[in-house]
Amino acid sequence: MHTPNDPAGGPSPSRPAARSEAPTGSHEDMTDPAATAAAAAEVLTEATGVPRYDIALVLGSGWAEAADLMGRTIATVDATDIPGFSVSGVPGHRGTLRAVEIDSPTGTKHALVLGARTHYYEGRGVRAVAHPVRTAAAAGAETLVLTNGAGGLRREWVPGTAVLINDHLNLTAASPVEGANFVDLTDLYSPRLRAIAHTVDPDLPEGVYAQFPGPHYETPAEVRMARTLGADLVGMSTALEAIAARQAGMQVLGISLVTNLAAGVSPQPLSHAEVIAAGKEAGPRISALLTAIVQKILE
Ligand code: 8IG
Question: Considering its fold, how many domains does the chain have in total?
Fold first, then answer.
């Protein structure tokens, strides 16, 4: 029997079993991700009463409370009410989408806060990872702010340090782009937006973010490898989303909160509790930072 997930009409003997069980929304699904995102955006704009968003933000580990500081939340929607979204199983990640109204010198603006990131390690495929970003683009957002919690490779970046992402290493061996689409990733992390962030805090350090597949943290040897390759930060998100955003024509700003030194950089083992604690401690400070940056972007 032919199903949307099984365009070839069944697993071929030459194909490994795992491939024939590709998650819904994987590349083996014949539906168009942009069309799926457009449909989700229609439901979202209807549900929130905001026809067009000016900016979208993905708030990762430690960044969630920034949404409250940024402006007035005028609508909150459960991720499960929007087609293609799912609830994150990660503690510290919210499963909601919020419409936030922000006053700016150039008028009232609308931010879409995506509290429902799908991580690559959840196994739902790269389409699911890219879907929130594509939905934001389809809902009009031309600017995307990607935040995350990350491991730091520089000893001077104590837990709680915010770092601007100036480039990435996609170490997932996957791409959200499908087919013969040769998307240019030069200056993926907008120099213009980074300059705006530096007007808010001239001392914000910058670094290269390496996305590992996770969900396990790196071994110390892998952290040394990442350093040799040019990484300053290690994490499990952001790079795939940034690529999808660029493909959708968005301007990307990426900011990491260093919540722990990467494995082997400090003698201490890593724990998710440590990550949550560092995020909680840094919360008010980085929320104020992000709010000020968003204000300037919207001016
Ligand atoms: I928060 O040290 C956080 N996320 N891969 N490594 C990876 N992801 C992370 C880390 C880390 N800390």
Answer: 2
